[in-house]
Each structure stands twice: as C-alpha cells, then as structure tokens.
C-alpha cells in the first residue's frame, strides 16, 4: 500500500527576490525551519507557493528544489495541477523523478464538465501517475464543488490516496463519515479555523498557511488533539492563535504570512503580480500578535 498523507503538511511559500526571481536560498531556509520544528510533510508549488504566477519551467524547478532541500527528511507533495489529464500526468512523472511522494490535483474548472467528466479526469491521472494522487477540493477558488458522494467514489480508485478539503466543516464531516472505512484514503482540511474541528471528528491532518510561520505550534496542536486526545488543552492552544488564523487571508495570500515571517527573521519576500503586497496595517497587526506569544520582532 502506498504511503498516505496525514498530520500537519505545510503548503510552502515560495520566497521571491525584489525583482520577482525565485529566492532558492530563502526557500531552503523555510524548508529547514518547518522540518526542524517537526512538521510531518511539505507541499511544494501549491497555491500558497504561487505556482499560478510561474512559468512551467519555474514550477518544475520549485518542485525539484523542494525535493532536493528536503532530502528525504519528510515526504514531499507536489502541486501538479494542469488543465488536462495528459499534462497533469506529465507533471506527476516529473515530480516522481524528483522524489515526490504525492501530487495535488485540482478538478477541471473554468470550462465546466460533467460529474462523469470529473470522475474520468481523476481516474485517468491516478491510473497513469507514479505518485499518489491527492484531490484538491477548493470550490472558493475553482467554482467547482466536489460533492462528498463523488469524493467517496473517487476514494475507491487505486492510487487516489487523499483529499485536501478546503471547504466548509459540514462538507468535510460528510467526507470523513463516507470514507471512514476506506483504509487507503485520508481526509485533510485546508483551513486553519477548521483544523481542530476536523481532528475531533476523525480527520487525518491539515494544511494551513500559518504553518510556514508557526510550524512547531501547529504540530503541538496536532499532538494534543490527535495523538494525546486532550481536546481541552488543544482548544486552549487553538484560541491562542485563532486571531492569526483569520489574518492569513485578510489580504491576498500569501502576502500576509510572508510579511509575518519577515518580522521574525524568516525569508518571505514580495508576492508576484497580479497579487498585491500586504499593507502596513497587516504588518503591524502581525507584529502585535507575534509579540503576545513571545516572539521578538526584527
């Protein structure tokens, strides 16, 4: 059986220089930071990594460098979404050659297809991919909602190993209930505010932008809730960071988290256009919150 994604998986930012070139040395530092703090896996070239602003060559270089910098310390998931199954399979093979374990794939969007078309899209990719396929359900970004029943059907396909469910809690709870007996499939939330609720109903992990900034704190949240079953302490810890959860996407992300990372001496850099840079008000708000939890501001 293929390895299944679970635990806290950080959707890595991609640091850029002021001229918008990729800061690979900064990327290495971010990867070392999150791994040293105990994160369970990394996602390279996802939405938080601004893959949508990159050329295909840049996109591939970020996947390659992530695998190189991780060096087998934790599993790597690569963002491999393309507009066709054939192109996605090409990226899946490239990611596998680089050393990735999984590939994250959005459903077809922009030009809507049928329910059967979505099923066939993922089936074709899964059958021809050397990496395990993680479905990315993100209706806010794509305008496509993958219903829980469809996700259950997809979970039964060989080589589809997980879903990153960036949807509301009701949706995630239904997916968890439907797939609980599928032994080779995991359900992972994509929202900070829904991490603890997801863990409480049997979810397998989380992706969260804030993990770039506070990886150790988010791992502690997972340990308290999932590993120790101490939801009272987990809830107390969750309240401590709840305000910052909301700040992650108060302005176009990943600008806010990049600004916050720079405040504590981590590489962030600007976001690429057409995204806009975080405001001074956001920087000040993060500085205040980080000081409250004991960080020194640079």
Question: How does this structure look, described?
Answer:
By secondary structure, this protein is an alpha/beta fold. Helices cover 46% and strands 12% of the residues. It has twelve helices and eight strands. Helix 1 crosses helix 2. The relative contact order is 0.14.
Low-confidence stretches: none
Classify the beta-strand content into a percent band. Answer: 5-15%
3D shape: globular
**What is the share of helical residues?**
40-55%
- Helix-strand sequence: EHEHEHEHEHHEHEHEHHHH
Structure summary, number of beta strands: 8
Secondary-structure-based class equals: alpha/beta
Report the average pLDDT across residues: 97
Radius of gyration: 18 Å
Structure summarized in a few sentences:
This protein is of the alpha/beta class. The protein has twelve helices and eight strands. An eight-stranded parallel barrel has the order 1-2-3-4-5-6-7-8, surrounded by seven helices.
Attribute tags:
12% strand, alpha/beta, 12 helices, 298 residues, 8-stranded parallel β-barrel
SSE diagram, text form:
Elements: E1 7-11, H1 24-36, E2 41-44, H2 56-70, E3 76-79, H3 85-98, E4 102-105, H4 115-128, E5 132-137, H5 139-142, H6 148-155, E6 160-165, H7 169-179, E7 186-189, H8 195-200, E8 205-207, H9 215-227, H10 231-247, H11 255-263, H12 280-292
Parallel strand pairs: 1-2, 1-8, 2-3, 3-4, 4-5, 5-6, 6-7, 7-8
